[in-house]
Amino acid sequence: MRRHSYRPQRTLLRAAEVTGVGFLTGSEVRLRFLPAPPSSGVVFVRADLPGRPRLPAHVSQVTGTQRRTTLGRAPIQVSLVEHVLAALAGLRIDNCLVELDAPEPPGLDGSAAGFVRALSEAGVQQQSARRGVWCVEEPITVSDGNATLTLHPPLQESGTSLTMSYFLDYGRLSPILRQVHTQTITPGTFMRGLASCRTFLLEAEADALRRQGLGRSTTTSDLIVFGDRGPIGNELRFANEPARHKVLDMVGDLSLIGADLCGHVIACRSGHPLNVELARAIHQQLVGALSRLVAA
């Protein structure tokens, strides 16, 4: 792995706030985005706990990937962080305090759109420090059964963009049709093509979560629940909205390495577990590359 280029770091111009009901707890949640110093990264602050403990948004802090990404361990824990992280990474906001009074962010409509609106209204400020843009020289692949996820090198030496492709296939009998989405990630394309794409699940999965006591305050109008004939009580915003949401999740989960990437991420049937596994593999190579730079 090598450093391909740099760009200026960015933070918020002013504070922003988002409120709403948490999908997991069903409680009202208040989240505040606050400007942060250069090179401090994204840090979650549990304002509801004694001492206001902090959790860096870093792959080393991930403790759960079952249907969502979780940082830390109870009671100092934040779950379902991927949509907040996607909003920050998609808008290239590198340094930010994310203060919240619950163990999860507001669920909103299951997308990142509400977070993106708040961040856009707050404005972005360029900082003096630089952020490295890194690429691999050989593909890195992680897999589990028929699910795979690969980071490929950039096609051109001068290319600094990150492109993501997701191939979604739940099988021939699934009510969710086979679909694909490819997106080059910039703040503009993220806002237009990914931010509003919502969490989705099958009706049987939704019922199973409710039996576990999760999502009892969430209805089919809050996110996309697929029955035998398609979305129940809801309509898709894009024909391939599920594949687009999978790309959104990848943007959030891969931001946990704490550096920009360039190249092409290609995913097939993967989810949070492989996203985080790839983030760990990339971070391991990143640490090795930084050590070689220091030694040189």
Estimated helix fraction: 10-25%
- Which CATH class? Alpha Beta
Please tell me the overall pLDDT: 94
Strand-pairing-aware structural class:
alpha+beta
- CATH superfamily annotation: lpxc deacetylase, domain 1
CATH fold assignment: Ribosomal Protein S5, domain 2
How far apart are the termini? 15 Å
How many β-strand stretches?
A: 19
* Morphology: globular
Spatial strand order of the main sheet: 2-3-9-4-5
Describe this structure in words.
- This protein is α+β, with helices and mostly antiparallel strands and 296 residues long.
- The chain has a single domain, classed as lpxc deacetylase, domain 1 (Ribosomal Protein S5, domain 2).
- The chain has 6 helices and 19 strands.
- The protein has helices at 82-90, 113-122, 187-193, 203-211, 241-254, 272-295; strands spanning 2-12, 16-21, 28-35, 42-46, 54-56, 62-64, 70-73, 76-79, 96-100, 124-135, 140-144, 147-152, 162-168, 179-184, 200-202, 224-227, 230-231, 260-261, 263-268.
- The strands form 5 sheets. Strands 2-3-9-4-5 form a 5-stranded mixed beta sheet. The protein has a 5-stranded mixed beta sheet with strand order 11-12-19-13-14, with helices on one face.
- β2 and β3 form a beta hairpin.
Key attributes of the depicted protein:
296 residues, alpha+beta, Ribosomal Protein S5, domain 2, 5-stranded mixed sheet, 6 helices, globular
